[in-house]
Structure formats: C-alpha cells, structure tokens
Amino acid sequence: MKKWLFIAAVNGALAVIAGALAAHARNLGATAETDIRLGASYQLSHALAMGLAALAGRNRATGCATISAALFLAGIVLFSGGLYLLSLTGTHGFAYMVPFGGTAFIAGWIALAVTALKLEA
Fold this sequence. Notes:
4 helices; single chain
C-alpha cells in the first residue's frame, strides 16, 4: 500500500499547485478559474481519501482498499483532469470526462466503506 500512499501525496501536492494556478493566473477568466478551483478541491480531498485507503489496506481489507485507491485516482484523472483540460484548452469535449470521474469517486467511497467492514478489530 506504500505505492498508493505515495500517489496520494503526489496528488495532494499537484492539487495545491492547481489551486495556486487558479489563484494567481490572471488571464484564465472567471469560469476557468472556478473550474480549476473545483478540480483542485476535489483532487485534494480525494488525495486524502486515497491516503486513508492506503493506510487501511491490510490483511483481509487490502483488496478493497486497493480498489478504493484506484477508483479515487481514476476520479481525480477524470473529474479534476477533465475540469483542468476544459479550463486550459476551452475544448468542451473534456467536460464529458467529469461525470465519469464523479462516478469513480462515489464508487471509491463505497469501496472504502467495504474496506472498513473488512478491517479486523
């Protein structure tokens, strides 16, 4: 689970960088700035969730924790990545990625709940 904790930490750093970009880039426009901030917010919160899954992954819970972490990563790529690409390129086709990312986030949380049930006391 060390790999997932590492990926979570890198995503946390990238989320902070994206938030700083939104805060300091003057030529993005209000909509793009809002979308980048939203993407960064979801990326940061799900980086933390991915780290939680990594720390919970032991014994019988390892499989579910791995699935949860992978779903959080997929959600970050699709949801946050879709918003970032939409904001930076103006290509509206990237907006179609966002709902799939949201679905991955929800599935990741469900997998994390199953992970919790598999943890030994």
